[in-house]
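S1.2 Input.
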Amino acid sequence: GLEVRGIIENINDNGSEYNKLLNGGVNVIDHVPSALLHHKYAILDDEVVITGSHNWSNAADQQNDENTVIIHDAQVANQFRQEFEARWGELPVSVLNPENRDHWAGVIRSGALFLFGKSETSGSRTIEMMDLYGRTILQETVWISEGEHTYAIPVPALPSGQYLVRCTSPSGGAQFMVPMTW
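S1.3 Output.
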């Protein structure tokens, strides 16, 4: 029941946990282009940050001289969260719904939420857009046909920031973050 998101670079490196996390239902995305992201941190419950030189690999655990710092401070966690959201917002975000193998991505541009992707089945979907406090901003039911499509849904004028989009079908749901930029 927890929201877990992550950004991983070099997803094809030996020992990468990208596919394991993705197959386990974690909303994790590849940082493209690689070799630019050197962050190594996790934010827990918006109050704790785990960071340091530790690469979170077997070599770091068993061989290298690495350090890990655990910070219990909501203000510091918020600073790390803002950095994470900025990096997340730079990347194309998508979601794979393991129940029906629908694959959707979303972006907000020019006052509309653009959903694009592939659906394995035709049917109605409920699209819900929420702010980071969980308040519903928009809720619409749309018919999505089988195959690859792009849908545009008008959104109200909102400040720039991060918004959660949830797409729910009778067989399950998927959610992802989209950057809101004007």
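S1.4 Remarks. Residues 93-101 have pLDDT under 50 and may be disordered.
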